[in-house]
Structures are given as C-alpha cells and as structure tokens.
Amino acid sequence: MKLFLLCLLAAALSVKTVHSLTCFTCDNQSSNWKCLQPTKCDDSASYCMTTTTSGGIGSYTSFSMSKSCARICVPTNIDVGVAGTSVNCCQSDLCNYSSATNVKKSYLTLSVSAIFLVLLLWTGL
C-alpha cells in the first residue's frame, strides 16, 4: 500500500500542467490603443504575435497592426524605405502589449528613392 501511494505521489508530481497562453488580439488596427483586448489562446498556441505594416510617401502614409495567438511565429523585419513589415513573437502571458518594435522607415532611404524616381521621370526612362 505504501509503495502504491509513493508511486501515485511521484506520478502526480511529474505531471506537467497545461496552461493556456493569454495574448492581446486585434485585426488591422491603426493604433495600439485599439489592440489591448486580452484573449485566452487555444492550448496549441505557443506564441503571442504582433504584425505591423507601414508605408507611404510624405503625408500619404498608412499603418496597420494585428495581434494574435499563434502556433508558429517567425520574427521578421523587412524595410524597403517606402514600406515595411515586421513580425514580433513572445511566449508569456500578455507579452505583446506594445508595438514599440514596429517598423521604422528610414527617411534617408525614402529621400534617396524619391530623388531617384524624380530623376528617372525627368530623363524619360
């Protein structure tokens, strides 16, 4: 009987509890303030993911943010001067609260691209 209780105790202590991740979620919002809705993720989700996209020239710019639960997440940061996208991943509850690491456009690259475009149009190419 003691052996049975000892085995039962050992089994109970070795069982890993499953804890669902909680992430902030939103879809295609223009501000982080609209992306602070906590959501309990499915048991299969291991990541909180934040995706940001931005682009434009001068005063014609756009920004979009989405946050979600994800099974797989690959951090990405692509910036081509006039447009960019980033994917940030984290693995703790409500870890995707900020968009501080979102895409930052390089104004030097933007200026050089605009000058190059003007020169192409001016020369007729």
UniProtKB/TrEMBL annotation:
Native species: Microcaecilia unicolor
Principal cellular location given in the protein's record: membrane
This protein's GO CC annotations: plasma membrane
Protein name: Lymphocyte antigen 6E-like
Localization: Cell membrane
Coiled-coil ranges per UniProt: none
Chain's gene name: LOC115480815
Keywords attached to this entry: Cell membrane, Glycoprotein, Membrane, Signal
Domain annotation UPAR/Ly6: ranges: 21-110
Single GO MF descriptor: acetylcholine receptor inhibitor activity
Endpoints of the signal sequence: 1-20
Domain of life: Eukaryota
InterPro entries: Ly-6/neurotoxin-like_GPI-ap (IPR051110), LY6_UPA_recep-like (IPR016054), Snake_toxin-like_sf (IPR045860), Toxin/TOLIP (IPR035076)
